[in-house]
Amino acid sequence: MVQQLSLYSSTLAPEVVLITLESLTGMVPQPMEQHTVVMRPKFPFKPEQKAGKINQIESYRIRMTRHGGASDSELLSNLQSPRWNNCIWTLQIVDIPAAGKRPVLTQNIYETTIVKADDILGYMDELGYMPEKEYWVRGSRFYYNDVVIEVFQVYHWNDGQELLDKQHQIKCLVNVAQLNDLESVARGTKQLEALKAELAGLVELDLYERTSLDGRVSWN
Amino acid sequence: MANRYLYTLQLSYLNNQTISIINNSKSVITRIPNTNGLLADPTDRDNLALLQHIKNGCSSNISSTTETFEQLVTSKLASLWTVKQTIKGEGGYGYVVSVPGLKDKGGDEKFKLRTSNCFLHGLFKGFLIEIEHLDDDIDQDDVPEGNNLIVKFTNSINKIKSLIDLYKFPEGNLCFNVLNETKLDYLSDLCQQYCDALQF
């Protein structure tokens, strides 16, 4: 599990941002190619609502992410494809980001990485999940102190990979391994705020609407 | 809906990895991606793939993450799965033994043995012995298939049975089921056998 601190922005002029980030970080951008399949629970989960009993159990979507780029074809229409089993997948479940007035977005991310599977879809099916959507993320990654900066665009499948939004998304994040590691959280927050000040005027880094990052499934 | 059982197996000698099977049919092996094991042999093909995976930002876990797959299931998939029992093996030893005279031509046969005391909720439940026949004839890269595989497998089982007879191992429940008969997989089959053996 990691606790992820993050700030977001978007831009229509990625060239300027990329050059700025190159000079700020002093590094050549590292290519980033991700292919993600969103899984949803097969059966609805509707626990009985009883008075005086607070139900803490939620059901979540699972994001499965692998390294995959522009040459990828749609996987959801080809459930028999050997590509499902020939690669490493990271399963990810996210909580809704923490509420309250905060300088950065804080979200708990639970993950496990599958390094070997004979029939991953069969396993996920037994686990109680089925594929729902897939998308690709492509762009660049920079590292600045503890901060990872990602500049990317999102593609979905429509007879080929199709760009979802002309804008380039910018995500700046710091991962902290322990929930109670307040020192790292404070340091990460400070670094994100410093980066925000550094890039002010070029891009305005800000929080993201927290409900749109909710990983829970609503059955109502 | 029929009951479903999810098993996870963690072995002290397989650092950071978890083998998981559901309903005795499907298996996956999970691990925390960027840990020491990755640095041990960076030229290894699997490790290189894992490095690519991390570099592309496909995983967020960092090296100080300690949560295993089991913890993910119990904490975040509670709407689907609840823990039934946890069996812990302690005070284990590993041996490689060479047994003369078991081979058809009178040569030595090698076995790998692992033993462990199994506890359920702190109560001793049994002594587990894992026996692996180390077949010199099987080359790691040359995976036998079809009939050949069944012959090899049956041969190894017989060798293990003669070892048990020879040294008068206490009688127990000998488990040698495999997950998929047409495609043997060392770790998933091991997990399956542990599941069969540890039915308390």
Task: Describe the 3D structure.
Chain B: One of its GO terms (molecular function) is transcription coregulator activity. Chain B: Keywords: Activator, Nucleus, Transcription, Transcription regulation. Chain B: Belongs to the Mediator complex subunit 20 family. Chain B: This is Mediator of RNA polymerase II transcription subunit 20. The complex is a heterodimer of chains A (about 220) and B (about 200). Chain A is built from 3 helices and 9 strands, in the order E-H-E-E-E-E-H-E-E-E-E-H. Chain A has about 220 residues and is of the alpha+beta class. Chain A has a single domain (about 1-45, about 60-215), classed as Hypothetical Protein Pfu-838710-001, CATH 2.40.320. An 8-stranded antiparallel β-barrel of chain A has the order 1-5-4-3-2-6-7-9. In chain A, a hairpin with a 2-residue loop joins strand 6 (about 130-145) and strand 7 (about 145-155). Chain A starts with a strand and ends in a 21-residue tail after the last helix. The model of chain A has no long low-confidence stretch (mean pLDDT about 95). With about 200 residues, chain B is of the alpha+beta class. Chain B folds into 2 domains: about 5-75, no CATH class; about 85-170, no CATH class. Chain B is built from 5 helices and 6 strands, in the order E-E-E-H-H-H-E-E-E-H-H. Chain B has a 3-stranded antiparallel sheet with strand order 1-2-3, with helices on one face. Helices cover about 30% and strands about 30% of the residues of chain B. Chain B has helices spanning about 35-40, 45-55, 70-75, 145-165, 185-195, and strands at about 5-10, 15-20, 25-30, 85-100, 110-120, 125-135. Classes of the chains: A alpha+beta (about 220), B alpha+beta (about 200). Chains A and B meet through strand 2, strand 3, strand 4, strand 5 and helix 2 of A and strand 2, strand 3, helix 2 and helix 3 of B.
